[in-house]
Task: structure prediction
Amino acid sequence: MKKQLRYLTSLIVVAFALYGVFALVMSFQPSIAHAAGNESAQLQEDTPPTPRTPEELKDGLFINMTTDDIDRAAMAVGFATKIRKQTGRPVTIFFNTQGVRLVDVDIPQSTHKSGNTIHEMIQMFMDEGGVALVCPVCMVNVGGMETEDILPGVIIGTPEFTWGALFAENVTTLSY
Result:
């Protein structure tokens, strides 16, 4: 089991390293530069957030959200919210690949069995102090989105934000 966990962790590290290289290369394309606002990160309200420090991110939880399936997403966001609420640990959800559709304000939302839409669940997560990041490459290339299409409060996941949350000391990583 420990060997499998190390292997999975290695795969995640390689995937994010490739993501970083790809994001850097893609940052020279006008559509990516426009979507990311040419800033290190940007809230929809144009209030630039500040990346959290390594000390603030220590012992955190990083959830890699690659699905737009409502049941998996509800499980991940609900789990993230519960961990944040009950432990106070820093929790980051990184929406990428098909997962970017979950933070698109233009996609109609179904109500989950819990009685909330995914947008409402993500908002509850952020209200508890959780951080939601969206992949700038995926939001354009997979979701066809621009910055104004993102839920308020969701941050463009540039390396300063994504890598800080992923590689901080003692961070646990989950993938949905």
User: Anything to note?
Assistant: The chain has one domain: 2-175. The two ends are 19 Å apart (CA to CA). Residues 16-44 have pLDDT under 50 and may be disordered. Residues 87 and 127 are 15 Å apart (CA to CA).
